[in-house]
Specification:
The structure is a homodimer.
Chain A: E1 3-10, H1 17-28, E2 34-47, H2 53-67, E3 73-81
Antiparallel strand pairs in A: 1-2, 1-3
InterPro entries (chains A, B): PurS, PurS-like_sf
Catalytic activity (chains A, B): N(2)-formyl-N(1)-(5-phospho-beta-D-ribosyl)glycinamide + L-glutamine + ATP + H2O = 2-formamido-N(1)-(5-O-phospho-beta-D-ribosyl)acetamidine + L-glutamate + ADP + phosphate + H(+)
EC number (chains A, B): 6.3.5.3
Chain lengths: 83, 83
């Protein structure tokens, strides 16, 4: 069955304590390559039917109202997953 | 600066209570399109330098050891983000 992926990240200007913790752990484990880490959410919505504009519009609405908090998060991606 | 995105999802065969809760909320809000919802994590690793095989190999190692729990999660995607 088709799956649509929704990607949500914390707004860029906000502090991301989880990301900072992971970045700190990377440095302690000897990996100095990465200057910052940010952590967000990835949703997979599975349904029965074709991936058409109506479904994508419905997912966009759901992503912005239910799957993310518009005050602190941005929806950074919505795409059909080739599963 | 280049960013590499790492996507981690719970293993397919595992129960995803958060996903079930969101799926239930969707149904209650009148959206019957989606049969299931699964929720995972999305990491953005920012660094200074070219995106080459060495960095991608390092990210793969970090993704499998630090960013995901191999017992209950799968790394489902690693790609350079065109930010």
């Amino acid at each position: 069955m088709p799956t649509i992926v929704v990607e949500v990240m914390p707004k860029a200007e906000l502090l991301d304590p989880q990301g900072k913790a992971v970045a700190g752990a990377l440095a302690r484990l000897g990996s100095s390559t990465f200057s910052s880490v940010r952590i967000g959410k990835r949703f997979e919505l599975t349904f029965d039917g074709p991936v058409d504009d109506a479904v994508l519009a419905e997912v966009k609405d759901i992503a912005e109202t239910l799957l993310s908090n518009a005050v602190i998060e941005d929806v950074v991606g919505i795409h059909a997953d080739a599963l």
